């Protein structure tokens, strides 16, 4: 059956330009943030979607998934040093709905900012397990990425739709296999086993 004109939408190539620009902006924010933290010698590790993409790209760059924000794991006692470092390169600190974040300039959006998570603390009170420490970290060129086992643990703790999608990406490229559930406590092991048993579920 042919699609009627009213049910289709024409897109110009400018859409591709906007998509590319959005990805480039996330990359630029990530680089600016970690270079500031490196210069200040503040311990940190990149987590979240950028960390997943870094690990996935080591196996299959074509399967690395883009993300709109930057998540960084730090120690709470370093918050003042983190704030000073990030503000020095143009980020603006905000504490919104219990989340410590840095938006990109006075008009920056929280959804596109730098989100902080704290090592050894629960991200949400209902979380079954606390976030891991940031040591040791894997060095990805000039920025520090959380070790994959700690990354998987954080994704299993959060267990949102996007976290399960990230875990599926790691499974698909072979970075997680049937031996992995035994590495985690309940209920994290059960969540991972469910994904391994039915990745599409």
What does this structure look like?
Helix content is 40%, strand content 15%. By secondary structure, the chain is α+β, with helices and mostly antiparallel strands. It has a domain at 14-146: Beta Polymerase, domain 2. Strands 1-2-5-4-3 form a five-stranded mixed beta sheet. The chain is globular, with a radius of gyration of 18 Å. The protein starts with 13 loop residues before the first helix and ends with a helix. The model has no long low-confidence stretch (mean pLDDT 92).
Question: Topology, pairings included?
Answer:
Blueprint: H1 14-40, E1 45-47, H2 48-59, E2 70-74, H3 79-87, E3 91-96, E4 99-104, E5 114-118, E6 138-140, E7 143-145, H4 148-158, H5 161-172, H6 188-197
Parallel strand pairs: 2-5
Antiparallel strand pairs: 1-2, 3-4, 4-5, 6-7
